[in-house]
Amino acid sequence: MDRLREPVTATALATEGLELLPLQAEFAEEMAVVLGDPALHTFIGGAPLTPPELRERYGRLVTGSPDPAVSWCNWVLRIRDQGCLAGTVQATVGPGDDGLEAEIAWVVGVPWQGRGLATEAARGLVDWLGEQGVRTVVAHVHPDHVASATVAKACGLALTDRMHDGEVRWQRTLR
User: Fold this and answer.
1) pTM of the predicted model, to two decimals?
2) Model pLDDT, residue 44
3) 39 CB-contact burial (10 Å; exposed 0-12 / middle 13-18 / buried 19+)
């Protein structure tokens, strides 16, 4: 099986306290509230999007990458015992130097930060990526973003000396 040609597709995932639901444009209304605090954009840049803007963005993401060798996998995080959405995780999967490589990212809304949700979701994502045949997992973290560096470390990613667009590369080899 040639994993470089077969697309990786986001499927529903479960962790102890979260459901990772494949992204749908219908999540835009609730996610606009989740991602609406301007403080959330300190390290990721930009500004909060309105529900219509987010719906349009989600529609583009769901359509997928124009490059057939690259898969865009995106999820929203639903807290099981509360039934509410609280953030996102994503993986861009494609050919790397040594097999499939995934660049991952996570965002948790300000009201839910500090509860371990990003770590739980990112660990679940990394485990799932390993099951998909991904060999290398990468995250780019702003050098001043201590919380995201903590998540990367908790997922087994190691800090490297490489920079990309002002962010530090973290990396883990899965096999």
Assistant:
1) 0.94
2) 83
3) exposed
Residue-wise pLDDT tens digits, 23-57:
999 999 999 999 999 999 888 889 999 999 999 99
φ/ψ of residue 61, rounded to 5: -65, -40
Give the span between the Cα atoms of 60 and 95, in whole angstroms.
22
What are the residue ranges spanned by the domains of the chain? Answer: 13-173
CB-based burial label for 27 (10 Å; 0-12, 13-18, 19+) = buried
What is the CB neighbour count within 10 angstroms for residue 69? 12
Token readout for 133 is: 């045949």
CATH topology classification for 13-173: Aminopeptidase (3.40.630)
Alpha-carbon gap, residue 142 to 44, rounded angstroms: 8
* 155 contacts 137 by C-beta, under 8 angstroms: yes
Residue 104: which of 163, 46, 148, 165 has the closest Cα?
148
